[in-house]
């Protein structure tokens, strides 16, 4: 395990770090708004907190699209963790990406089924992903709420892991993603 303490790990590049912390901010807002906004029923109008949930959600969709493209074209230098830890970390990150894409998409599908238009910054309309009144779109709203809990659990695991690296293993994993981390050596 000595390697874990010795290693000097390069940071993610500045774009990846900016996208990571922007995602954290937007996802935190989505949880707070999603859990405090009124229940959505058949005749509910997309106003106030619900309008905020759609608006912040539209930004998150755009940020995640850019983030996935960036990630696929700019691979960070592999970590130097023991194989098991590295595998757990990679699996968690893949699951995080999957839920970060799926949860917003399902919310968007549900919004479309309610006849609500999702707009980026209140201006640019996104296409409808399901027909107004669609039963499928309605059900995806339930899946959206359930999968949000899965995302929440993954984030909890992820944050505990980050703090474990920083305070127990005392390695450089957290520094790889901090805003002021040194210059990156990504392989993009
Ligand atoms: C990671 C991002 C997101 C999180 C964490 C999140 C979280 C939530 C939560 C917790 C609820 C309440 C669920 C319930 O009480 O059962 C909710 C409902 C909803 N969200 Fe999201 N949301 C996200 C992204 C989005 C996006 C991008 C959209 C649309 C563009 C969206 C549209 C909706 C709609 C329409 C509902 C009402 C669903 C229903 O009750 O049938 N959400 N969301
Ligand atoms: C909404 C909350 C969060 C989400 C959705 C999230 C998501 C992610 C994702 C998807 C990755 C993989 C990056 C990649 O390989 O491209 C990642 C990496 C990372 N995150 Fe987070 N994160 C969140 C919060 C946090 C917090 C609060 C911390 C610090 C306490 C943190 C620390 C890190 C670190 C250090 C890495 C790099 C891990 C490594 O080098 O292997 N994250 N995060």
From TrEMBL:
Membrane-related topology note: Multi-pass membrane protein
Keyword annotations of the record: Cell membrane, Electron transport, Heme, Iron, Membrane, Metal-binding, Transmembrane, Transmembrane helix, Transport
Requisite cofactors: heme b
One Pfam family named in its UniProt record: Ni_hydr_CYTB
Chain segments annotated as transmembrane: 21-38, 50-70, 91-111, 146-169
BP GO annotations: respiratory electron transport chain
Cytochrome b561 bacterial/Ni-hydrogenase domain boundaries: 12-179
One GO MF term attached to the UniProt entry: metal ion binding
Compartments where located: Cell membrane
Cited InterPro entries: Cyt_b561_bac/Ni-Hgenase, Cytochrome_b561_oxidase, Di-haem_cyt_TM
A GO term from the CC aspect: plasma membrane
Family: Belongs to the cytochrome b561 family.
Name recorded for this polypeptide: Cytochrome b561
Gene name for this UniProt entry: yceJ_3
